[in-house]
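Lab notes, practical 5.
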Amino acid sequence: MKNLFKALAGFQQEVPAIHEGTKGYGYTYADLKTILKVINPIMKKHNLGFTQLLEGTNIKTIIFHNESGENIESITEVPQGVTLKGMNAFQVAGASISYFRRYALSSALALVTDVDSDAKGEQVKENATPEQEQYLFKLAENYDIKAMTKSKNMILFSKETLQKAKEILNQKGNK
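Output from the prediction step:
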């Protein structure tokens, strides 16, 4: 594998970030055509090639060294049962395959194909159930602060619910 890894290292030192191009939902990324246009000459220079095969619901990406025959493989599962507005099942399958081919190849070659915005999204917070809220209020009424702070559901409560529990505690504490 030393030939393959040496060639991959050379390729990775030379390949630029490839995120200009297609605009997505508030971000830019490189489509598969753009990626191939950039990487193919650099791969050729380093005696590298790749293929992507469909195997059932998976895409197998194989990166190989032309001279030695050494290769590495990566398997990416394409999610099934996805529906997209305005597309029939065949169109969804085609879109999914293109999407996952792009990400599988980018991952296997360590390409930068979009602007890194991983930590920019806001975490979706689960809400407490009405039963969990009532339990919190019951604990507050009984002035059971210890049980309240140990509740594993504490992070699920909205600010409003926690404020209401605090008010109940204050009322109980002032009596």
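Observations recorded by the TA: The chain has a mean pLDDT of 81. The helical segments are 2-14, 32-45, 89-109, 130-141, 145-150, 159-173.
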